[in-house]
Amino acid sequence: MIHSLFLINCSGDIFLEKHWKSVVSQSVCDYFFEAQEKAVDVENVPPVISTPHHYLISIYRDKLFFVSVIQTEVPPLFVIEFLHRVADTFQDYFGECSEAAIKDNVVIVYELLEEMLDNGFPLATESNILKELIKPPTILRSVVNSITGSSNVGDTLPTGQLSNIPWRRAGVKYTNNEAYFDVVEEIDAIIDKSGSTVFAEIQGVIDACIKLSGMPDLSLSFMNPRLLDDVSFHPCIRFKRWESERVLSFIPPDGNFRLISYRVSSQNLVAIPVYVKHSISFKENSSCGRFDITIGPKQNMGKTIEGITVTVHMPKVVLNMNLTPTQGSYTFDPVTKVLTWDVGKITPQKLPSLKGLVNLQSGAPKPEENPSLNIQFKIQQLAISGLKVNRLDMYGEKYKPFKGVKYVTKAGKFQVRT
Amino acid sequence: MPYLGSEDVVKELKKALCNPHIQADRLRYRNVIQRVIRHMTQGLDMSGVFMEMVKASATVDIVQKKLVYLYMCTYAPLKPDLALLAINTLCKDCSDPNPMVRGLALRSMCSLRMPGVQEYIQQPILNGLRDKASYVRRVAVLGCAKMHNLHGDSEVDGALVNELYSLLRDQDPIVVVNCLRSLEEILKQEGGVVINRPIAHHLLNRMSKLDQWGQAEVLNFLLRYQPRSEEELFDILNLLDSFLKSSSPGVVMGATKLFLILAKKFPHVQTDVLMQVKGPLLAACSSESRELCFAALCHVRQILHSLPGHFSSHYKKFFCSYSEPHYIKLQKVEVLCELVNDENVQQVLEELRGYCTDVSADFAQAAIFAIGGIARTYTDQCVQILTELLGLRQEHITTVVVQTFRDLVWLCPQCTEAVCQALPGCEEHIQDSEGKQALIWLLGVHGERIPNAPYVLEDFVENVKSETFPAVKMELLTALLRLFLSRPAECQDTLGRLLHYCIEEEKDMAVRDRGLFYYRLLLAGVDEVKRILCSPKSDPSLGLLADQAERPVNSWASDFNTLVPVYGKARWATISKCRGVERHGPELPNASCATSGPLVPAENKERVQDLPDSGALMLVPNRQLTAECFEKTWLSLKVAHQQVFPWQGVVHPDTLQMALQVVNIQTIAMSRAGAQPWKAFLSAQDDTGCLFLTELLLEPENLEMQVSVKQSKARTETLHSFISVLETVIGTIGDLKS
């Protein structure tokens, strides 16, 4: 299925390659570079490229391209998903999925790729099973290893592979039995000039961290399960139970995993926690313009909005910006024309604002369109959809586990048009 | 890079690897090996230390083993003789008590990719298949496929295949999936792994135990299974219901395809399934991964072709946000254009209007074309928006708007009036060839409604000398002549000058010929010109530009979840056609080289070689069917077609055999030259695995060749193509004799 994998950085260096079925020459990547050139912006290269003998399916993650070489017709989603899984695994192992991290750990990278794919087919991709096969590098472990000479490869076979349930290893033992759930919601929204919502939607996930001994059988119920529009499940969840009773019943994998992901899209249910007052104007026939934005809270259910960042891609004719923030700090990169304003928290008594002058290239026509504002924020202890976990029950084991649920709301693709 | 050349590094590493002090210190030894691997991955040639690395593989340290195996797999094809030495160690490791070592050794051994290794790996693989650790079985099962690839020829080991089929019942889910993968590769020539009823049911029952990759692949394999009864079919669909809600988009799409194909006779089930996957698909469309998003959007477009209203209520999902990459925006605009209905048209148009002034010219133009597409149904609103866009006086916008107008006037003649009112003034903002052509065409065809049309065209004629595009000049000629017919007084002078220029000064032949043609046409009288130039202008019923017909789900169900929706059907056909020719390309010359004796003249050979592309039939070269096998199949089949070809004289068996081989028809047996009656048995196979068995019979005294063809799968169209191939070959050879 997947013949070869090339990792390419943003400046076009192939810094890692791995072949499974047969060695495919690096020159196949020339087609990829060609497509990149055509796309003008490197990031805009289409994910599927056809060449005379192969298809190249690529993903772009953290400034790296993962380019896979495929020889036969394949389901494209399958390959894309797998490549993302590879990137996720690197992220998981090295804390970041960057060129430097991969180069530093090149030996582990090869070991991982070897276990994840054999003869071009995906094999072990569950993080908890991989971690038993190949132990992740930690500072402590590398110190210990260098003293004792022990390795970061497990010498025993992962027990998970012998259990009847493929996602859970057998004979798990913990002294503290804990089950944590993180309900994370992201708001995707487009707000138009006048402040009304063009489109809004909540993408939610429940991530779990389960450290329970034995074979626990959990069931998780919600106060308001009807909120959830489209839900997709981890393979461990019993679908029939959900259909009939709206209860999540499952034997969990060991460790971290994503239990469900869901969407809430009926617009009246999506609260928009911030508003932006803006006035951006460019004067005709003069080399300057005015820029003034203010952010304030709205429908925030009484919680503090924090971690606010505003990013604006200014038009090409903007040379520089002279602004004063009432709060936080801002930067403007004259090369990429990106304005970033790191706001921090909103205090309702004094709303943060950023205003000042914009210098334009003299002589150039004034920009057709005002830029869009991309906004990031975070609200702790709140699931903006109103979703609430009711209770968690455990069957099959005798001990009493420690349970916890955390809620957080974040901005996803949150965009304000001006 | 800190090093000057690889030689110094190799020398230094070699010394370090041989140093007994280092060898004694596990940690240092491993560090040196790691350095070798590091250099190897950076592209330095490290094959010089192969011998030392082989020695390093004899260790208890599993990491070191792994590293050495990795090294060996990379360089074994370069140093096959040395690699044979390593095999001994590998074989020993295959019976190590630690299953991880066994698996590792077996996998590395199978990946050596050097000639002659097959005989060493066969036994370890067979042992591996019966290993008690599932880790080793997984490796061994895939090893079978690797071994088969190493063999290179198409010989299939029957015992091995049976063993693999029985391993489909293995406890470990990954072993099961690997078996399918492996069988698929080994049996590629025979059409892949066979999914019969027991296997299908077994796989269905194991589905929930598989990981997401396994599920996606098994769903794909299950497409081959045809349920016997309706009841069974619905049982299967019920079982698979939950996979439509899987968290992996790959599994969802695989399940959807299976549903669509199995339920091809139940349109309501298909619609129902598409309703069910609407949620997951929309989720994928707004996924964090831009690539997933793109692939999902392509599939949404596919579905919209059959169910235009399917996503209409979710139109806001397809609004573009600023930061998305280009290819996603373009897809979204296409989707928006297709899901428009009475309720959302206002909002969608407003949104698209916003994109028209985007910084990226490409995206802006795509948005304008999209508005043009919507204009076919909602003409008035769209023409108004497009007219407003002209007011921006931007070059890249004006040119596309004018092109859209041209197509629109052709498809929806009712908007001509509005378009004509909008046109004056835009000639100042058009520079490119396409835009100019469109504007000139509009001025020519509807010039009687545009007051200043003759003067705009006159400006073009004034500047015709500096015009670089011949196509624009041609368009100008036609347009001016048309306008001359409706407004002769204003155009006569200009037309005269243009014709003079085109005939006397123009360098481009096509333009000059067009000029001469119109000149002579004018000589024949105005009525004649009118008759020819002003025949009906537009006829939407021709359907040349608009192909809006809804396509049934079944027409694309088999393309679902493949690369076809990504490329679009037409483009995919061209891509895969080139590929098909290339794939079969390298084999054809071999066949024809061997046969290119003086007997088949060059021109005939070409004619013959062209044949396989002519129809849908693609014969697979070099299928070695044994005589016994042929006889058995021949006796079991009925004659599908009988025909008589004209023939003269005696047969030259060698010539005929060679000619047939060129078109990939293999001769099984043949009478001697001059034997009476003369007989020959031929076989051929097409790319779908269908066998064509043929008997040629030449009775004495008869001037004809009797041909009987039997086919292993009854398909008339391929049969006809096959007969025509055969006819051409026999015709060609027959002609040679006469």
From TrEMBL, chain A:
Cited Pfam families: Adap_comp_sub, Clat_adaptor_s
InterPro entries assigned: Adaptor_comp_med_subunit, AP2_Mu_C_sf, AP_mu_sigma_su, Clathrin_mu, Clathrin_mu_CS, Longin-like_dom_sf, MHD
GO biological process: intracellular protein transport; vesicle-mediated transport
Protein family: Belongs to the adaptor complexes medium subunit family.
Bilayer topology: Peripheral membrane protein
Principal localisation: membrane
UniProt protein name: AP-3 complex subunit mu-1 isoform X2
Residue stretches making up the MHD domain: 176-417
Organism domain of life: Eukaryota
PROSITE patterns associated with the record: CLAT_ADAPTOR_M_1, CLAT_ADAPTOR_M_2, MHD
Swiss-Prot/TrEMBL keywords: Cytoplasmic vesicle, Golgi apparatus, Membrane, Protein transport, Transport
UniProt entry tagged with the keyword Nucleus: no
GO cellular component, one term: cytoplasmic vesicle membrane
Subcellular location: Cytoplasmic vesicle membrane; Golgi apparatus
Automatic annotation (TrEMBL), chain B:
Membrane topology: Peripheral membrane protein
Principal cellular location given in the protein's record: membrane
InterPro entries: AP_beta, AP_complex_bsu_1_2_4, ARM-like, ARM-type_fold, B-adaptin_app_sub_C, Clathrin/coatomer_adapt-like_N, TBP_dom_sf
One matching Pfam family: Adaptin_N
Keywords: Membrane, Protein transport, Transport
Secretion signal span: none
Record-annotated Beta-adaptin appendage C-terminal subdomain domain positions: 619-731
Source organism of this protein record: Vicugna pacos (Alpaca)
Top-level taxon of origin: Eukaryota
Gene: AP4B1
Family according to the record: Belongs to the adaptor complexes large subunit family.
Name of the molecule in the record: AP complex subunit beta
Localization (cell): Endomembrane system
